């Protein structure tokens, strides 16, 4: 959905969502108007797809790429490439160095990784549990002799010969990255850094170039399974992404931009692509959508939002409760436990491009986890894909228009899908082609529905109190399927669903967040001088972090006075294993009274999150971390508001009918052109609303209403 | 049946607290009578709410269940104990006014039954009138004589009121790290009577107006070694209960009390029907017989008990018979089980039956509809006086799991035969592992505080193989399918023990066409401890699980500990030290590295407190699961993969699997397919050569039985079973065709059988009404 404005434009912000299948661009001008561009993703060189998508979008404004790029003030990138690389285990070949004797811990997945991401029923159903392959196989894991205890004291000094041996073996095995994670290195990093230096030395000696990642340099937090997984991600998945981002940045600079691209990060703000901890951007694309939903919710007054996003390769769900994003500090993602501040969200590797196969022994239908990505499926002859995908099923069932995929840029052949489904699925299962295809869609929908339900109920809510936002290129095709029967308060499909994550990126704050581990412990009856000292320790950490934040902004051309700072801290009752992140009520702290205010803020939050009776002030308090967030204002997109017209869609919106198969029967679905529908229009199923970028399916039993903000509301009738 | 009694139906004088005006006792009696008369819970032959408003019913269920799950996830963050915070050893359950569970969170869901039993005990014993049950009261219970599994599982129970009337209860349970037993750790060994099990609390009112009493706080905090953990665990339970109480109040204010009230009873009947349908869908009617054993090796000097009558080796015996009827009802009978004993492995009937039901939720009824309906859908017979239904109030319970896990693994085999017959090959499971070792002990820790430790790494044992794939390695425990071995960095905060190894335990999973999942092992170095002790707890001489359809059982346990290791010097001088795993215990490597050390390496896998000093070593070995099918049918490449992955000790590839593998220059094994084929043919020939007809074998065995030619422990075990299980004896006699004159009694064996003739049940105490849950 593109808004045209006759005035001379000043294009300011570019939001990018590079999905596994499609690359969306979202341009915002100085009036807040926006335009969406789409093109197929080009994983070999993402810049190509990005430029094509930009040209597509800017074409709507009659602008050339070069003209627009010169005006641009900032650009935000988000993408799913890194996550897909992890889900599909297609990252770099990394070596792992841990303590000798503990080489198995990474592949053991702490047992918890056998059922992560499961719904309640499967969590208790033992025979369904399974492990994904480890990111680093056991035969590329080496142990070095050393031990440091929980307080940072050396138990066994580092035996450097064991390090050289490990390094040489991994170098000889031609690894593309070496990750080091030793127990308690977050507390005393000396051994780990020494291992890093020796490994670097050995690499130098070998004449090879292999990046080295020590966990203490990246994620110095307790819990080795989390820390090690996260550090491995830097080598396994983030480094390839950094190369991609550099290419993109260079390609745009060649065309006249003057800024460094920012990337959507897990904490919900954006960071530079040069940032050291780039694994923080693992789920950047989906987070863009969440930020967009939050922004839309703020403008339109939705408090509780379930954000759901289906692209070609994955399904992502996040919740906004009472207008707030939830931040998890030891989240799991892609069935791995991690140690990142993350907008709480979960993801399954099932999307429109997911391959469908039959288990040769059990004939069980298997969806994914790998995906055709941008190559759609067998229906696109030029793709070279031979295995049936979810999109092929859509093609057979009449969900998609073979002549209007990406506005006709890609011609699809329904018969190719029919033939492939017949031989690969229908005949072996003894079903008709349409029943096999419909079965696959039903299976996918029910998987997604259960997932959505478990996510919401896992948070202790029911869908009735939530508005569900459905977006992503393939979202509106499945919206009815995965929301049916859940009883959401409302189900909303933005008319710019396909560019929604890019929209969210454009709406995101430019925000850096720095964390520092602290170990402040105070008895409940600590005298004033100790409380004052504690406040000063925290303040010193804040000042250090402030310096870091301001430095980052300086690199991007912002003066300190332009930056809004928000200090925070992590606090717990002494002896506990979990802390709470508290936004500081004070801009700075230096006195015993300040300390009391910090403690009060913690006690208030603790009582709200848990229960008043769970407060344990008699144990005393620990501050485990200091946090500093700094943000600068950026232009954000305006939400359209148009007057409502009649319920009946204009005739010119109708673009024919298509045979549509669902629940064992063919019906004639009325086709509409999304851009031609008017605010106030009501469309009753069976209907398919098409635009170049997305297809919104409204089957019989459903209807949808287009409101003045260009949001479709889907409901069961 | 109308669940609610209207005020006008009752005498004004009755004045009970339950919604409608009944007393708790009247209410429960009425529900139980109606259940008995109709076979349907509370006499509900139809379900008014579910039938007329199915959407509302489902909404109520989904919302409440989600809330209970969320309460657990949220509340566990309050705890400081890694057992709760990391291992998730807690559970919250919502009950109706009669004390029957409506729905539950995940976690240690055995307590759905045990907390219900506590509520029922309060109802039957007039708690309503003294000490009174009022809104915002808090009750605490851990009494194993009325249903708890063992004293370390502490229950917090809070009544829920609506407009001044009681409409239900919520219970929360955590597994605490110490209960002030004779020895440190939550499941201490060594005491042989309940009085040594530690702090015991019987449904005590410990708070009102949502506030704990000061006398309770002062008393309870000094009754245990680990006070801080105890306090925060209690706050975890109370917070969770209060979150759920609040949720129920919100749901009622939105959906109305009538709907909630109906739901609270219909859900139980729904659960009963759910189980029945599942049994119909998954099993084949008939009788399934199986048996479980485990060792109690108390004669060894490292088991220090206070009483001479407890100082002997015995074997736990648990034969079981599952009868499945065509209508989906079923009965489990444990006739022939051994007597309770002078050890800490006895179990109350409620923990025994609730635990079986936990097992069922992992396989037969893995649905969100988990509640007491399943209990009403299952008939149990546990003969009085057996270890799972003791008739003496002196018995100890602190590690009842030693027997429970060993008895239940047999039930997996019974059910799996049924699944196999129906073609549910993926559901087949050769059985649960023996969930051990338990590393426990105490003394002064690295913070110079009195401390107890109780590692929960064995929440991640190997699982049994299925009929289509290997069991999962280091993954789960029968008492909590959501296994979690915990981060080492967290255990090191809780224990003055440094990790020198954490490794998959090769060959710990039973061999088979599909092998059992392997366990793992942790090597711990004592570090910064003072006056420290530790002990072992697990199976050693007996594999408590069995393989299925030709699969092998998992390896049994053993212990490894080393004192006076000289490790301080070895570390300082840079010499090799024990690291990683004790890969092949038959050909140990470590022992040569610490020459001069005092090493304990044997099958004595149960011990009592033993002193440890810094630089001593302790091996914590978590067991594997049993295998499925003949190992000779295993795909040879899978055996080679097991060798390369560290799941199999090399020599067993040849001897058990008949697989010939060669080691390449890079250390990896590759398959020699022709040699493997040849080897397997040879093994099959060998098997035929050494086999004898069953009749001949039985004839020989019968002669041995007639001559009573068996070990003392075996004779004692059978004699005890015969005494308590006359039908078991009759079956045994007729199967082996034994003459009437053949009699085996405990008296003739010559070992102590103290307690076999005189016993006194808790129900014989004045003013105590116990609640009967099973046929005896």
From TrEMBL, chain A:
Residues 14-202 form the Hydantoinase/oxoprolinase N-terminal domain. Pfam families: Hydant_A_C (PF19278), Hydant_A_N (PF05378), Hydantoinase_A (PF01968). The keyword Metal-binding does not apply. GO terms for biological process: glutathione metabolic process. GO terms for molecular function: 5-oxoprolinase (ATP-hydrolyzing) activity; acetone carboxylase activity. Its EC number is 6.4.1.6. This is Acetone carboxylase beta subunit. It comes from Starkeya nomas.
UniProtKB/TrEMBL annotation, chain B:
InterPro entries: Hydantoinase_B. Residues 54-631 form the Hydantoinase B/oxoprolinase domain. Pfam families: Hydantoinase_B. This is Acetone carboxylase subunit alpha. It comes from Ancylobacter moscoviensis.
């Amino acid at each position: 959905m593109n808004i045209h404005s006759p005035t001379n434009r000043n294009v300011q912000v570019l939001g990018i969502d590079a999905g596994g299948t499609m690359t969306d661009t979202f341009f915002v001008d100085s009036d807040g108007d926006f335009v969406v561009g789409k093109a197929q993703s080009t994983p070999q060189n993402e810049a190509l797809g990005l430029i094509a998508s930009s040209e597509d979008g800017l074409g709507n404004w009659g602008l050339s790429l070069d003209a627009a790029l010169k005006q641009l003030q900032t650009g935000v990138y988000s993408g799913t490439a890194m996550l897909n690389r992890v889900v599909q285990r297609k990252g770099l070949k990394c070596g792992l160095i841990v303590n000798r004797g503990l080489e198995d811990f990474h592949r053991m997945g702490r047992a918890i990784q056998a059922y992560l991401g499961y719904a309640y029923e499967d969590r208790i159903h033992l025979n369904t549990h399974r492990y994904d392959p480890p990111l680093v196989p056991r035969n590329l894991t080496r142990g070095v002799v050393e031990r440091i205890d929980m307080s940072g004291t050396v138990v066994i000094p580092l035996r450097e010969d064991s390090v050289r041996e490990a390094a040489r073996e991994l170098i000889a095995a031609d690894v593309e990255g070496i990750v080091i994670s030793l127990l308690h290195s977050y507390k005393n990093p000396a051994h780990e850094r020494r291992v890093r230096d020796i490994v670097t030395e050995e690499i130098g000696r070998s004449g090879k170039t292999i990046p080295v990642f020590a966990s203490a340099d990246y994620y110095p937090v307790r819990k080795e399974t989390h820390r090690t997984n996260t550090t491995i991600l830097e080598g396994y998945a983030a480094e390839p992404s950094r190369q991609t981002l550099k290419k993109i940045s260079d390609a745009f600079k060649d065309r006249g931009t003057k800024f460094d691209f920012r990337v959507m990060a897990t904490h919900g703000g954006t960071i530079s692509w040069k940032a050291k901890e780039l694994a923080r951007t693992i789920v950047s694309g989906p987070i863009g959508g969440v930020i967009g939903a939050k922004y839309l919710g703020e403008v339109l007054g939705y408090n509780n939002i379930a954000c759901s996003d289906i692209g070609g390769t994955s399904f992502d769900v996040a919740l906004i409760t009472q207008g707030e994003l939830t931040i998890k500090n030891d989240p799991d993602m892609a069935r791995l436990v991690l140690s990142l501040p993350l907008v709480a969200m979960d993801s399954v590797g099932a999307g429109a491009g997911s391959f469908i196969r039959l288990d040769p022994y059990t004939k069980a239908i298997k969806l994914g986890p790998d995906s055709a990505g941008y190559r759609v499926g067998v229906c696109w002859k030029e793709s070279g894909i031979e295995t049936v995908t979810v999109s092929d099923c859509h093609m057979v069932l009449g969900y998609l228009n073979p002549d209007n995929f990406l506005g006709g840029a890609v011609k699809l052949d329904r018969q190719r899908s029919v033939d492939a489904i017949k031989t690969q699925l229908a005949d072996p299962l003894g079903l008709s082609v349409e029943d096999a295809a419909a079965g696959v869609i039903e299976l996918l929908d029910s998987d997604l529905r259960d997932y959505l339900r478990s996510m919401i109920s896992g948070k202790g809510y029911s869908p009735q109190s939530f508005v569900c936002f459905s977006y992503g290129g393939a979202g509106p095709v499945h919206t009815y399927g995965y929301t049916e029967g859940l009883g959401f308060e409302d189900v909303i499909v933005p008319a710019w669903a396909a560019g929604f994550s890019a929209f969210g990126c454009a709406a995101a704050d430019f925000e850096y967040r720095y964390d520092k581990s602290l170990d402040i412990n105070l008895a409940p009856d600590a005298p004033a001088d100790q409380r004052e000292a504690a406040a000063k320790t925290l303040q010193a950490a804040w000042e250090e972090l402030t310096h870091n934040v301001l430095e980052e902004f300086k690199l991007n051309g912002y003066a300190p006075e332009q930056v809004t700072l928000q200090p925070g801290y992590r606090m717990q009752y002494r002896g506990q294993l979990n802390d709470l992140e508290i936004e500081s009520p004070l801009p700075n702290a230096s006195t015993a009274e300040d300390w009391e205010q910090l403690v009060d803020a913690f006690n208030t939050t603790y009582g709200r999150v848990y229960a008043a009776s769970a407060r344990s002030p008699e144990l005393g308090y620990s501050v485990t971390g200091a946090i500093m967030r700094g943000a600068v204002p950026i232009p954000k997109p305006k939400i359209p508001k148009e007057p409502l017209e009649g319920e009946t869609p204009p005739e010119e919106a109708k673009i024919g009918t298509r045979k549509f198969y669902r629940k064992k029967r063919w019906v004639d679905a009325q086709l509409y052109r999304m851009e031609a529908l008017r605010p106030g229009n009501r469309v009753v199923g069976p209907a398919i609303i098409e635009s170049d970028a997305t297809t919104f399916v409204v089957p019989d039993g459903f209807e949808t209403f287009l409101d003045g903000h260009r949001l479709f509301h889907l409901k069961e009738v | 049946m109308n669940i609610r009694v209207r005020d006008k139906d009752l005498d004004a004088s009755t004045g009970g607290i339950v919604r409608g005006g009944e007393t708790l006792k009247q209410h429960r009696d009425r529900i139980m009578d109606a259940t008995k008369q109709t076979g349907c819970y509370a006499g509900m032959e139809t379900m008014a709410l579910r039938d007329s408003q199915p959407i509302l019913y489902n909404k109520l269920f989904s919302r409440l269940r989600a809330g209970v799950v969320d309460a657990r996830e949220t509340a566990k963050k309050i705890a400081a104990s890694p057992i709760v915070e990391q291992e998730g050893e807690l559970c919250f359950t919502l009950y109706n006014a009669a004390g029957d569970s409506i729905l539950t969170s995940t976690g240690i869901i055995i307590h759905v039954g045990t907390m219900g039993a506590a509520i029922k005990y309060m109802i039957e014993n007039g708690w309503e009138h003294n000490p009174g049950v009022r809104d915002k009261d808090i009750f605490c219970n851990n009494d194993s004589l009325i249903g708890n599994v063992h004293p370390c599982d502490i229950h917090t129970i809070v009544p829920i009121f609506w407009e001044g009337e009681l409409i239900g209860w919520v219970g929360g349970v955590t597994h605490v790290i110490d209960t002030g037993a004779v020895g440190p750790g939550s499941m201490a060994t060594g005491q042989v009577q309940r009085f040594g099990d530690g702090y015991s609390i019987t449904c005590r009112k410990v708070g009102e107006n949502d506030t704990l009493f000061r006398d309770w706080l002062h008393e309870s905090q000094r009754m245990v070694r680990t006070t801080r953990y105890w306090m925060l665990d209690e706050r975890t339970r109370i917070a969770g209960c209060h979150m759920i109480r609040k949720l129920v109040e919100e749901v009622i204010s939105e959906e109305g009390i009538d709907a909630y009230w109906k739901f609270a009873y219909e859900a139980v009947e729904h659960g009963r029907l759910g189980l029945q349908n599942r049994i119909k869908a998954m099993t084949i009617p008939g009788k399934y017989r199986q048996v479980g054993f485990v060792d109690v090796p108390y004669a060894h000097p490292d088991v220090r008990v206070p009483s001479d009558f407890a100082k002997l080796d015995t074997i736990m015996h648990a034969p079981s018979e599952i009868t499945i009827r065509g209508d989906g009802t079923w009965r489990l009978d444990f006739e022939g089980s051994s007597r309770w004993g002078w050890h800490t492995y006895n179990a109350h009937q409620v923990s025994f039956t609730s635990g079986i039901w936990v097992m069922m939720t992992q396989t037969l009824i893995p649905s969100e509809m988990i509640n007491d309906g399943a209990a009403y859908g299952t008939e149990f017979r546990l003969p009085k006086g057996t270890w799972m239904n003791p008739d003496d109030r002196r018995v100890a319970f602190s590690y009842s799991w030693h027997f429970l896990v060993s008895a239940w693994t047999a039930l997996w085999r019974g059910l799996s035969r049924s699944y196999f017959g129906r073609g549910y090959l993926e559901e087949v499971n050769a059985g649960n592992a023996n969930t051990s070792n338990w590393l426990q002990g105490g003394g002064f820790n690295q913070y110079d505080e009195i401390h107890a430790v109780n590692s929960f790494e064995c929440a991640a044992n190997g699982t049994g193989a299925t009929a289509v794939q290997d069991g999962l390695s280091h993954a789960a425990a029968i008492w909590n399918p959501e296994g979690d071995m915990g981060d080492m960095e967290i255990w090191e905060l809780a224990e003055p023990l440094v990790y020198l190894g954490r490794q998959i335990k090769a060959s710990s999973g039973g061999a088979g066409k599909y092998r059992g999942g392997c366990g793992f092992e942790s090597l711990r170095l004592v570090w910064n401890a003072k006056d420290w002790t530790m002990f072992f707890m697990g199976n050693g001489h007996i594999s408590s699980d069995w393989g299925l359809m030709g699969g092998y059982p998992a390896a049994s346990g053993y212990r490894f500990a080393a004192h006076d290791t000289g490790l301080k010097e070895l570390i300082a001088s840079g010499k090799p030290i024990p690291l990683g795993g004790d890969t092949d215990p038959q050909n140990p490597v470590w022992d040569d590295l610490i020459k001069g050390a005092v090493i304990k390496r044997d099958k004595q896998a149960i011990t009592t407190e033993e002193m440890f000093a810094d630089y001593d070593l302790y091996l914590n070995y978590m067991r594997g699961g049993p295998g499925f099918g003949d190992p000779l049918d295993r795909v040879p490449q899978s055996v080679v993969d097991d060798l390369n992955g560290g799941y199999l000790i090399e020599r067993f590839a040849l001897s058990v699997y008949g697989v010939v593998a060669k080691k390449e220059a890079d250390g990896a094994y590759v398959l020699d397919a022709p040699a493997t084929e040849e080897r397997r043919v040879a093994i099959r020939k060998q098997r035929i050569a050494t086999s004898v007809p069953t009749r001949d074998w039985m004839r020989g065995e019968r002669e041995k039985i007639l001559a009573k030619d068996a070990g003392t422990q075996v004779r004692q075990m059978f004699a005890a079973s015969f005494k308590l299980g006359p039908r078991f004896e009759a079956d045994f006699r007729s199967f082996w065709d034994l003459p009437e004159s053949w009699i085996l009694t405990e008296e003739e064996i010559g070992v102590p059988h103290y307690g076999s003739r005189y016993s006194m049940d808790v129900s014989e105490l004045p003013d105590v009404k116990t609640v009967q849950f099973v046929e005896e």
